[in-house]
């Protein structure tokens, strides 16, 4: 057990939208420390979303992120030699982390040619309540629902 809890690091808002959630998303999107490329991919994807949907791209992205964020998840808990999947509520910080992670992971595995097209496609799909990232959230919720009987093992 560590002595003290580490200080929470606060991140600066992004240059275009002045939103810290966008910066967090771009930081997860970034590979090999190439932040300017990650920003370009994100901004181009938002422009593509605006073009395809005809609404504010940032609002569509936030709606997509809210559709992907899970409310409950299962955690393994050992009780008397048996391992149970115990459903637990997700903290707000972890909720946004999981939503961002799933949105990026499933946009990377899409079939479009460039990353901005993949990300835009996944954002549009998630805002409509479909796509692989939303399916992952539904699977997580279904798993928690199936293991509701073990909820008394919460720690």
From TrEMBL:
<dbReference type="InterPro" id="IPR000235">
    <property type="entry name" value="Ribosomal_uS7"/>
</dbReference>
<dbReference type="InterPro" id="IPR036823">
    <property type="entry name" value="Ribosomal_uS7_dom_sf"/>
</dbReference>
<keyword id="KW-0687">Ribonucleoprotein</keyword>
<keyword id="KW-0820">tRNA-binding</keyword>
<dbReference type="GO" id="GO:0000049">
    <property type="term" value="F:tRNA binding"/>
</dbReference>
<dbReference type="InterPro" id="IPR020606">
    <property type="entry name" value="Ribosomal_uS7_CS"/>
</dbReference>
<comment type="subunit">
    <text>Part of the 30S ribosomal subunit. Contacts proteins S9 and S11.</text>
</comment>
<dbReference type="Pfam" id="PF00177">
    <property type="entry name" value="Ribosomal_S7"/>
</dbReference>
<protein>
    <recommendedName>
        <fullName>Small ribosomal subunit protein uS7</fullName>
    </recommendedName>
</protein>
<dbReference type="GO" id="GO:0015935">
    <property type="term" value="C:small ribosomal subunit"/>
</dbReference>
<dbReference type="GO" id="GO:0003735">
    <property type="term" value="F:structural constituent of ribosome"/>
</dbReference>
<dbReference type="GO" id="GO:0006412">
    <property type="term" value="P:translation"/>
</dbReference>
<keyword id="KW-0694">RNA-binding</keyword>
<comment type="similarity">
    <text>Belongs to the universal ribosomal protein uS7 family.</text>
</comment>
<keyword id="KW-0689">Ribosomal protein</keyword>
<feature type="domain" description="Small ribosomal subunit protein uS7">
    <location>
        <begin position="1"/>
        <end position="148"/>
    </location>
</feature>
<dbReference type="GO" id="GO:0019843">
    <property type="term" value="F:rRNA binding"/>
</dbReference>
<dbReference type="InterPro" id="IPR023798">
    <property type="entry name" value="Ribosomal_uS7_dom"/>
</dbReference>
<dbReference type="InterPro" id="IPR005717">
    <property type="entry name" value="Ribosomal_uS7_bac/org-type"/>
</dbReference>
<keyword id="KW-0699">rRNA-binding</keyword>
<comment type="function">
    <text>One of the primary rRNA binding proteins, it binds directly to 16S rRNA where it nucleates assembly of the head domain of the 30S subunit. Is located at the subunit interface close to the decoding center, probably blocks exit of the E-site tRNA.</text>
</comment>
